[in-house]
Amino acid sequence: MRDYRREIADRIAGLGDIAAAGLSADGVYDIVVPTTDDSKGDYAFPCFRLAKALRKAPPQIASELAAELSAGLDKDSGGVIDRVVSENAYVNFFVSREALARDVIGAVCAAPDAYGSSDEGAGRRVVVEFSSPNIAKPFHIGHIRSTVIGSSIEKIYRFLGYDTVRINHLGDYGTQFGKMIVAYRRWGKREDVESDPIVTLLSYYTKFHDEAEKDPSLEDEAREVFAKLERGGAEERELWQWFREESLKEFGRVYGMLGIAFDSYAGESFYSDKMDRVTDELADKGLLVESEGAQVVDLDGYGLGKALIKKSDGSTLYITRDIAAAIYRKEHYGFYKNLYIVASQQNLHFAQWKQVLKLMGYDWADDCVHIPFGLVSLAGGVMSTRAGRVVFLEDVLKNAVEKTREIVIEKDVNTDDVDETARQVGIGAVIFGELHNNRIKDYVFGWDKVLNFDGETGPYVQYVHARAASVIRKAGNPDAAVSSITPDAYASSITPDVDAVYLTSDSAFALAKEIYGFPDAVRSAGEKYEPSIVTRHIVDVAQAFNRFYHDEQVLVDDAAERAAKLALVFATKQTIKTGLALLGVEAPEKM
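Now predict its structure.
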């Protein structure tokens, strides 16, 4: 698709004053920006940087450049730019509305499901670690952030042509399993665990901490049990494996509801036999020092304190296993990037971990990226597994579906399958809500927020998609509620050779511009690891479509006008559908 910003930059770069100022075409491209006010143009070139080299005031430079560029439009056979004007220190460009509409429709029609994708990642592999719940603990609402942010980032990178690997680095190792085994041995019953694994194991874990406050020796017993597990104790390993299998069954239901899959469930335990290599290498390179009986890497010189590698009792820690995991992934996957979607609480941990990798001499350490996100708390305080203060994610999803089902029935929503629509919209609302705001923001969980379908929400965007689908279905017979023409059938028959003169109204052009901006939004979301950029962009597309739908009659009698407007409706539908898919949200055809 035509890059209007690039074409404008090339035109500017061809002027004598620009060359005299030492600006290349790429340098100009970096300065050209979309305008924030459509009435003043579509792109703007600020002239402040030219003032010193040209010895003129920026407004004078802008005026002269605009006059020179305007004169050149008479020789422009491409019809890319309609007008060039100056305003204060800016040169503003109005692009051809017909040209942009034709370009957008042509690009979407050429590859409807691939619009916005690219091959920039060809031959490069990206490992994405996300979700990573703890075995034998609840999969609660706090886990949704890593899960859906990570899933969306993986989808975006795959859409950009990268070979992606989805890893669920399960929290299936550590002292907490000593606590769980001790609690089960003292108070547990096998039949209770089998009937309701996570709730039962959570009750044991909570009881352990209540009892440990009265009898601190329980903590020592738990450490001893975990040490046995690390040494391969048969009974301890059997219980640990059972807890793991039961937990994965529970987690699998939630992942199924969210439509999320993984390529690897290699958790912390997978690296238990790979940690001696790490500690030996650290020792061989003179990086390990003793501190109060423990083994640490001193990072005080980097302002990062001391990284604890091995406790005084010989047991390992998260950082030891994370170092082993990074080395394994580089050797096994040969990654271009290794992404960790983990809460901002772990910022220090990842800073220490990366610095240790660098000190070990691994030049790929900077290809490992921690992508932090804000925390979820409950009204009245933070979530605590120890205290049993959690909201189960499965309950959130089920409630969202049930609430949606009530709304679908109450409003007599147009659907062939009430339950399926309720599932798509209810779960979509939860995912979309999580991905609508910048990932780094903290927020307080509340049922009213999760189940609010008004405003810039997933159900709103899904409804606009369904409305566009409805327009296309009616295209074959405007008098029928539903015709035989489906969006898929329409996709195979649509042609980009429409008369774009019918798409030059303010609302049609605004919609075309939003669709045109979708590929840039996807690229930006990938570069910044920020799915909310896609979320907000498809909200903008949806709002622009509603204005267009309100202002324009689509199914008119004139064949040429009808074809042009239907093509824009189709481009809207495809863009929203693709954007929702990148978030992990389904796009119902009817609502």
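The radius of gyration is 29 Å.
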